[in-house]
Amino acid sequence: MEKRHVYNSGIIGNCAYLAHIQKDTNVSWLCWPSFDSSFVFGSLLDSKKGGQFSIRPVGEFTTNQYYIENTNVLRTEVTTADGTYRITDFAPRFRQYERYFKPLMLIRKIEPLDNNPRIRVICEPVSDYGQQSFQKFRGSNHVEFSNGIEQMRLTTNVSISHFFGEQSFVLSEPKYLVLTYGQPLEAPLEHTVEHFLRETIGYWRTWIKHATIAPFYQASVIRSALALKIHQYEDTGAIIAAGTTSLPEHPGSGRNWDYRYCWLRDSYYVITALNHIGQFEEMELYAHYITNITHADRGRLQPLYGINSQFELTEHILDNLEGYMGNKPVRIGNQAYEHIQNDVYGQAMIALLPLYTDYRFVFKERSDTGRWVDYILQKIEKTIDEKDAGIWEFRNFANHHCYSNLFQWAGSSAAYKIGKVIDDPQLMSRAETLMKRAAYHIEACYDSKRKVYANAAGSPYLDASTLQLIMMHYLDPASEKARAHLEALERELKTPQGLFYRYLHADDFGKPKSTFLICAFWYVEALACVGRIDEAVETFERLLTYANHLMLFSEDIDESNGSQWGNFPQAYSHVGLMNAAYRISMKLDRPIFIG
Fold first, then answer.
1. How many Å apart are CA 80 and CA 66, to the nearest integer?
2. Residue 33: is the preceding peptide bond cis (ω within 30°)?
3. What is the reported pLDDT for 267?
4. What angle do CA 414, 302, 385 make, to 5 degrees?
5. Contacts with 188 (C-beta within 8 Å, 6 or more apart), sequence order
6. d(CA 114, CA 488)
7. How, if at all, do strands 105-115 and 175-181 pair?
8. Residue 395: what pLDDT?
9. Neighbours of 100 (CB within 10 A)
10. Which DSSP string corresponds to 341-387?
11. Given this model, what pLDDT does residue 396 score?
12. What residue stretches are annotated with the Trehalase-like N-terminal domain (predicted)?
């Protein structure tokens, strides 16, 4: 068996930016000033053109990387023949002046732990996706980086001459590195870093304490919740699928996509996960982001949008970059914004439902949403009989997809519940009619001989997305029909390890070669729904082994060796874990959980 591929990095962030810190100390990915900007460090996609920000020793070394408990503050301990030192990396985030302080500031604290190791600090940012470099200027206690348009500053108590030569130095006392974009640090260095570190650790631990997390594999859910949180761009409320672009779904597959956008059609899963852990502020921000998009009526809702609600996400290929482990193409932008995916309307309606069923929202906050309900229902009425690209964004063919109509059914069901709450018989009648029309298309996908719902009407192919028929209670989980449907999907799409393929038929890029991790977590939920609790727990536990050393999950897993592939970490994989854990914990009746 070939060696398992794992992403050897952790992430830090503060809801304004995300950065990847490799186990070898290098900042391998950092996009500034926002999630969808060019990287200033991008060796993840090109080791030569991606720049570097590393703190490495002279000679060979080993590392141990871990998060400070219940935080997004990352530590990397480096051991060499000369001694041991520790790097603490974090993005400042805490309450200050009655708002969140979340600057474009990457802080790295270096401290000796044993003896006096000799180290070399390299900070060489780039711009325009590696096509340009920054000019470097010497300051009294800082290094200035400028490309004529952007400015960054590295404020430090390391000798400034160190950054203009090749020399190493002996680490005998704590050193501080503060890299800022735009606004420089104009405060005492050591005191400020230590203050920011204490406040940031306190913020994250308080955030977790205020979360509602069941004891079932609580540590794993906490890490997933922390990862999901820093994928939210707080300025607008958008939650991106991943902070990276073009990490391949499988080597040589060509399936290298830019995931630094918000997939509106995944809103149901995200809002559900946030609701389960009681993080209302994030859920409300995300709901407002969705509301703003729907109010800007452009005829159709897109599957995805930019973090600032941009509509056009034109896809480009960057030929100048070698790609992750040589995997080309490197893409920025995502053509899927042009696709027709009609499940998005149901997703948007479900996002609206908590305004009426969750009493943490006061009446004033939902008093102007009648127009929104009507808008979405009109869209469902116009698209319910259409073919579309489906959840997996097929680029060259369309069908009446079971999943799309399922979410139109679910969206109409949500509208019915809203009508009931506000005592609007006309709305209830309209929604009920749409539920029946959606059900007609869903039933057209049913194969009575195999006792399974196919991916689309008239299609022989099966699809993991139809697991949602059980989880959304379109099929009664206790019914024979649900049991048979699940078993048929297992036979065709499940691997011996409990992993799940999205589908196994050829698409625009051939047959998929890796499994999709969120589908495996959907499978866990489906098992729990139909009462196969022990199998759900066993499969969930097995899926946890596909994390990296920091309990971070990728998008795809190679069933042959458990390798991680796809963009990383994948927010929706963590959402899948959170929802699966919640589903199991609600089914278990144990006064004391183990896990």
1. 18
2. yes
3. 82
4. 60
5. none
6. 58
7. antiparallel
8. 59
9. 14
10. -THHHHHHHHHHTHHHH-TTS-HHHHTT-HHHHHHHHHHHHHHTT--
11. 62
12. 11-95
Distance in angstroms (rounded) separating the CA atoms of residues 248 and 22: 18
Q: What was the pLDDT predicted at 594?
A: 47
d(CA 152, CA 198) in angstroms, rounded, equals 24
Q: How far apart are the first and last CA of the chain?
A: 30
Q: Buried b / exposed e across 32-41, counting CB within 10 Å, b at 16+?
A: bebbbbbbbb
Which parts of the chain have pLDDT scores under 50?
591-595
Maximum Cα–Cα distance across the chain: 78
CA distance 63 to 231: 26
Q: Which structure tokens are listed for 262?
A: 């918000």
- Residue 557's pLDDT is 97
Q: How far apart are CA 37 and CA 16, in angstroms?
A: 12
Predicted TM-score of the model (pTM): 0.94
| Amino acid in position 519 | C
CA distances from 236 to 233, 292, 373, 440, 570 (A): 6, 10, 22, 38, 20
d(CA 477, CA 455): 19
Residue 582 has φ and ψ, to the nearest 5°, of -65, -45
Angle at 445 between CA 443 and CA 448, to 5 degrees: 80
Name, in order, each residue with C-beta under 8 angstroms of 389's C-beta and a sequence gap of 6 or more.
Answer: 336, 339, 340, 341, 395, 398
Give the pLDDT of residue 393.
66
Q: What's residue 1's pLDDT?
A: 52
Cα Rg, the chain, nearest whole Å? 25
pLDDT of residue 593: 46
Asked whether the CA dihedral 333, 337, 341, 347 is positive or negative, the reply is positive
Token code pair at residue 63: 């590392």
Pick the closest to residue 523 from 538, 511, 506, 545 (CA basis): 538
Q: Cα-flanking dihedrals φ and ψ of residue 534, to 5°? A: -60, -40
User: For residues 488 and 486, what is the distance between their CA atoms, to the nearest angstrom?
Assistant: 5
b/e for 229-239, b at 16 or more Cβ within 10 A? bbbbbbebbbb
470 and 529 Cβ atoms separated by less than 8 Å? yes
Which amino acid is located at 212 in the chain? T
